[in-house]
Amino acid sequence: MSAVAQGRPLSKVVIIGLGLIGSSFARGLKxxxxxxxxxxxxxxxxxxxxxxxxxxxxxxxxxxGRAVQGADLVFLSMPIGATEKILSSIAPHLGKNTIVTDAxxxxxxVVEAAKRVFGTVPENFIPGHPIAGSEQSGVAAGxxxxxxxxxxxxxxxxxxxPKAVSKVSxxxxxxGAEVILMHHDAxxxxxxxxxxxxxxxxxxxxxxxxxxxxxxxxxxxAAGGFRDFTxxxxxxxxxxxxxxxxxxxxxxEVLDQFTEGLAHIRAAVDTANSQDMLGxxxxxxxxxxxxxxxxxxxxxxxxxxxxxxxxxxxxxxQPGEQVSGTLRVPGDxxxxxxSIILGxxxxxxxxxxxxxxxxxxxxxxxAFRDLGVVIEGPHNGRVKVYGVGLKGLKxxxxxxxxxxxxxxxxxxxxxxxxxxxxxxLTGDKSLSKRPMGRVADPLREMGAHITTxxxxxxxxxxxxxxxxFGITYKMPVASAQVKSCLLLAGLYSDSTTVVEPAPTRDHTxxxxxxxxxxxxxxxxxxxxQGGQTLKACSIDIPADISSAAFFMVAASIAxxxxxxxxxxxxxxxxxxxxxxxxxxxxxxxxxNEKQVGGEPVADLVVRSADLKGIDIPERLxxxxxDEFPVLFIAAACAQGVTRLTGAEELRVKESDRIQVMADGLxxxxxxxxxxxxxxxxxxxxxxxxxxxxxxxxxxxxxxxxAMAFSVASLRSxxxxxxxxxxxxxxxxxxxxxxxQKVGLKIVAKDA
Length: 751
Ligand code: NAP
Fold this sequence. Notes:
With 751 residues, the protein is α/β, with parallel strands linked by helices. Helices cover 37% and strands 21% of the residues. NADP nicotinamide-adenine-dinucleotide phosphate (NAP) is lined by residues 16-22, 41-44, 47, 77-80, 82, 86, 103-105, 129-130, 133-134, 137-138, 236, 239, 243.
């Protein structure tokens, strides 16, 4: 059996082209003892001598045919223009099992060269490209760790030998690289945009300036920006000449797109069009800041000042006893979403303060940037939205990715159904499973063209129809998102009426009024006349009562505790948590009530109390829908049984919150029985020292579950570990630090 199949070190590796890449590969092979002998080949004897002197290779050979005889693997790392000639020289001398791979920066031309030489691409020929390097070249420039933490793209063609791919992958991975498989056409397209175009621009800019009569002065004063931007113009000209010739079509395509963009900015500068310039710059700034998250198809985790980073995915909690202090929790998520949406379609500039810089609201913000709205910020909760009016949204450059945010998807579905362009809304894995039929169905009744997956889940492909007609819609399930979606679509119809089976959040109605739109509310019926203009305004977003809820329960269940929660939004459609906790015997006082931008706010003082189990009145369910995970923790600490009914909605939130909470409570030693529309929890009473036994619970990526079980630690006998907590950043990026501040013994750790 060959060394390849057995996974032991290779006997002989031949490296053709002993420059930056070839010599770095050789150094890596040696460091990780991946082969017994390395033979180097290059054009000049000086390179070969240097390679031997530096100990990069064990032997050198000028005759390529002789070099590859008996080789397990041949690595081509010379300029790609030489590939065909070199393959022709080595072809007759390759063994049956010899693997050939390369490092060339363009892959389509390498595959074509192999076809011309061999008739067909041999099964052991595995094209590759390390996405690592520098502007330096030559054997001395190589580095042993050049590929560490970098990607290597392999582009095997159909009929390749899987073992050969595994062996090549193994070598790269042993050097610390991450291997990705891709089709060679896709590779060439991606690299044209991300690597080839920037090199072309750098060469061109330096050349243009160097030709200038004043060039000495220009280069003398060239500072960081110029140096950073043009560093890559110091790269090897022959190598890049070969790359542009080999990847002509893809490079020209992206160059044309860029030229168009440049002409657009030129015109904006020429005509002093601030809106256009700011649009380009703010979109580019946001895209650059969120580069890595965009790449990993996640929303905007990195930008948050106090965020729990993605990798800090497990919360570890030691039993705590007491909490105390003053907190201002982050801005209301629902109101943050709506400030961007309504600000975008208003006439004029809307200033927002207290914006929640959590992933969900940021997903909405980015979506509107993609829809052509200029948005400055967020900077410490401040955002400025340059409204484009009801009809000013533009076709986005691609699908709108809304991360984990159901609110963004449902509200945008309403607004975008009425535009004169088509758009597709997508989300992360969890959002892609959530039901969208509840908004798509009534929107279709209004004349919208929407397609979803067969089960009603995203992506949502929306073909805009600017002539929607008004309907009267009786919502089968109480949902503020559905109501808001229809009201936003209703702005573009004649008259839209929504009838609620139970009261739901009315932030949209309140904010619409703040923007000068008249919204009629009679009992359970909301009516909106379309065609009204929204006028920009200032919005001061209150602290989110859903985030405050975790500390309300914390102070209630922990002994001798008192917490002051400042400037909390107490919109009557959101205060179910206060009502339910009070029914359970909680000690909550509401102080300093005032109105801020149409929304009532107050300071809440919460003190320890002996809670008792209750049957939760169904009328309060929609008013506390997001707070149930932490209310279940309160129920576990209460004396007697707590029963929840009429809350089937909880099963289709970010997770099945009924089942996930029941499982978690059971795992922590609390008797909980999930029912189709609620839960029955046997409270263990406030007089027992440890309600929860401690242990591991799974949040299923649901932020509210993760935070709820963190609060449970205050009445736990042992350590609690909550897995999969990264999504806490969607609604409460500073949760860990705020929880620590009042006394929870919590740390966030890498998974
Ligand atoms: P380099 O430092 O300039 O080295 C090129 C090597 O190839 C030199 O040893 C040169 O020999 C040898 N060579 C040139 N023509 C040859 C021929 N006809 N026959 C045999 N050997 C020949 O180049 P590099 O940066 O390592 O790039 C090598 C390959 O990797 C290129 O295909 C490039 O597209 C790809 N790549 C480069 C980077 C990067 O950042 N540099 C990144 C990823 C991939 P002499 O020294 O004797 O002239």
